[in-house]
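Reply to dn_fold:

You asked what the input looked like. This is it:
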Amino acid sequence: MASWRSAIPLPLLGLLSFVLFHPISTTTGIRLTVIRKPASDFPVFREAPAFRNGESCGSADTHRIHIAMTLDANYLRGTMAAILSILQHSTCPENVAFHFLSARFESEIFWSLNSTFPYLNSKVYRFDTNRVRGKISKSIRQALDQPLNYARIYLADIIPADVGRIIYLDSDIVVVDDIAKLWGVELDGNVVAAPEYCHANFTKYFTGAFWSDSALASTFDGQKPCYFNTGVMVIDVDKWRKGGYTQKVEDWMVVQKHKRIYHLGSLPPFLLVMAGNIKAVDHRWNQHGLGGDNLEGKCRSLHPGPISLLHWSGKGKPWLRLDSRKPCNVDHLWAPYDLYRSSTLNLED
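and this is what came back:
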């Protein structure tokens, strides 16, 4: 074995090990035909330490925690920080399995993921962007219109059939608590569990055209709908599949194409299908809005109360503001998880 390893250049060996032990699951046949080192301008990350289970952890096979995230070059730095934060604060990090949804084969991304987290239990799945072709309507921010932003709608169709529950997380988060606590929430028969924000003005998420149409507005009759952020969700995948929720969300996207009823990307159709019918989770699991508003990304302060997850939803992303040397105060809470090798910030081992 030693002679085999020494005969192969280390960078090539790293990607080969990723292919062998981190298979890419796809329904459209991605093939790893080209193996190359990342371009010189592609971000390079430090290797994260190997995180091991505590003595109280059960078998990884019977106590598996499934987490889904998207994988995209533009948000890769955020994804790396999110993964590190989850593993670092987990009592049983070896029990955590990551399911990454990617819109295209980018060898540089797979290379970076493997070299940064060589011990990560993960799979990468191809999200066919043709599934949302013609269904996406222009929103108030271009980043919200990217096809991969809609991949969470199709998650249940993409991941293996034996995964019955999963946590979906955006790439602009860091977890500062044991993810097993979120995994263990009771859904009480609901399809989705997430923090609810009932003090928010729910009407602002839809246009006047929606509220003035009695047939559309009656969607929420008999319910008490509240805003929830789709960047942090615990999903009963079995119930999602059986209930045909992908189709239900898509149906509202079709309505949007014919009659503009909302302005915000993939969030409103989730609200139309599920608002008022989710299991509420403690707000500590989504301290959202740290990226500011969707247009200017102005700084925001933390909300009062305990925090388990920080979420830079909104226009401003912490890595961009830190690099510009115009960070918000909350961005310094993200910085310790930044594995970007060229960063001038210090990372404690």
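The radius of gyration is 20 Å.
Hope that clears it up.
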